[in-house]
Write a structure and sequence with these properties.
44% of the residues lie in helices and 20% in strands. It is built from eleven helices and ten strands. The strands form three sheets. The protein has a six-stranded parallel sheet, sandwiched between helices. Bound molecules: magnesium ion (MG).
Length: 227
C-alpha cells in the first residue's frame, strides 16, 4: 500500500506547488520512490514542470497532469469551454494506477479546498475518496489563522482533525509572520504545524532542499502524528 498525500491550500497562489516539490525532492533524497501529480490544471503548466523536475523526471508531463486546459480560468470552466469534462472516477483511477508504481504519491489540488476541479467535485472529494493524508499550504500573512480554520472546518472532522498545516513564509518574516505560528498553534496544536520558506524560481528548489531547516521541517511534517 502506498501512502497518498493530498496537498491543498487556503487559496490559490499560497505555495502548494512549492510544498509539493519540496516534499518530492526530500523523499527522493531519502531513497523513497515518489510521484508528484497535479492531475488537473488550467493555464500554463509550470506546476507540472516543477513537479517533474522535483521527482527526477520519473513520469511524463501527461502522467503528472493528464487533465490540462489552456484557458487560464478555473479548470471546470476551462474544460467546459473545450466541451470536455473531468470526472472524479477517472481522476481517482489515474491516481490509483500511479500509486501501484510508487511508495508515496503526492497529489496537488488546484486552487483552494473547495475550488471546483471537475463536474461535481473539488479537492475535498478527492481527499475523501482517496482516504488521503492532507497537508494544507497557507500563506504566512495577516489573515492566515482565519483561512486555515475555515479550510479545516470544510473537511470531515476525522480528516480535518489530522490535517497538517504548513505556513509558507517569505524569506524575511515580519511581525505577523513570526507570531502566526504561535497563534495558530493555540487552535490546532503545535505538532500539526510546520513552517517552510517559500521561493518563486524553479532553480531555487535545490537550494532550498539543501538547507538543514528545510529537511527538519519536511521530516517532521511526514512523521505520523502520535495517536
Ligand atoms: Mg500550484
Amino acid at each position: 500500500m502506498s501512502r497518498i498525500i493530498v496537498i491543498t491550500g487556503t487559496d490559490t497562489g499560497v505555495g502548494k506547488t512549492v510544498l509539493t516539490a519540496l516534499l518530492a525532492g526530500h523523499l527522493r533524497a531519502a531513497g523513497v520512490s515518489v510521484a508528484a501529480l497535479k492531475p488537473i490544471s488550467s493555464g500554463k503548466r509550470t506546476d507540472a514542470h516543477l513537479l517533474r523536475r522535483a521527482m527526477g523526471n520519473a513520469l511524463t508531463l501527461d502522467e503528472i497532469n493528464p487533465w490540462h486546459f489552456d484557458l487560464p480560468i478555473a479548470p471546470l470552466l476551462a474544460a467546459r469551454h473545450r466541451g470536455e469534462r473531468a470526472e472524479l472516477r477517472d481522476v481517482l483511477a489515474h491516481i490509483w494506477k500511479i500509486a501501484h508504481r510508487f511508495d508515496t504519491v503526492l497529489v496537488e489540488g488546484a486552487g483552494g479546498l473547495l475550488s471546483p476541479l471537475g463536474e461535481g467535485f473539488s479537492t475535498r472529494e478527492l481527499i475523501v475518496e482517496l482516504s488521503a493524508d492532507v497537508f494544507i499550504a497557507a500563506k504566512n500573512q495577516l489573515g492566515v489563522v482565519n483561512h486555515v480554520r475555515l479550510t479545516l472546518e470544510a473537511l470531515p472532522p476525522l480528516i480535518g482533525g489530522r490535517a497538517r498545516v504548513v505556513l509558507m513564509s517569505p524569506a524575511r518574516d515580519g511581525a505577523v509572520g513570526r507570531t502566526n505560528h504561535g497563534l495558530l498553534a493555540e487552535f490546532i496544536g503545535e505538532p500539526r504545524l510546520s513552517k517552510l520558506k517559500w521561493f518563486r524560481r524553479a532553480e531555487d528548489l535545490e537550494t532550498n532542499l539543501r538547507a538543514p531547516q528545510t529537511h527538519a521541517a519536511l521530516a517532521s511534517l511526514l512523521r505520523p502524528l502520535e495517536a
